[in-house]
Amino acid sequence: MRRMNDISIRRKLTLLMMLTSVVALLLACGAFLSYDVATFRQKLGLDLSVLAEIIGANSTAALTFDDAGAARDALSALRAQKHVISACVYAKDGSPFATYVRGGAGGPLWPPVAQPEGTQLSRHDLSACRRVLLDGEAIGTVYVRSDLGEMHDRLRRYAVIGIVVLLLASLVALLLASTLQGLISRPVLQLADTA
Hints:
- By secondary structure, this protein is of the alpha+beta class.
- It has four helices and five strands; from the N terminus they run αααβββββα.
- The protein has a five-stranded antiparallel beta sheet with strand order 2-1-5-4-3.
- Helix 2 packs antiparallel against helix 4 (149-194).
- It is rod-shaped and about 100 Å long.
- The chain starts with a helix and ends with a helix.
């Protein structure tokens, strides 16, 4: 605390203005980041659900005519989705009918039996499960699993942008604080000199 007393009033005012600006900026960045992460997770879940529905629609004939090759062909379209790790089309009885695995993927790739409809988010991946319907009757299920690489890439970009913005804003705040502190410190210093 002794060091703070040795600092001139000009520097104290400059530090106070800088600290206020940086804290306000950090709070604003944190709020925007939290909101974006929440909405982006929802978007990823919706996108994966739509993808599962499309695969399901393309697998309807394969399930109806018990053609596993056609179901594998429908799943092979997932190669265009670089974040999809694995997928499985399940038969009506819940057993795996056709599967897709991205090269180099490891770990449990799909559940051994069909899961209930919905999306699930874990620390490392996101999965979606959708029923395949024909005339309103479930004839199978589609499971699609994706990594969270897209979200992690987005967070890295935000971190870099946030650091750059914080540095630039701090520089601007320092320039403004150095200029404006004179408005407050000059009359106080004149009063002190007069006293």
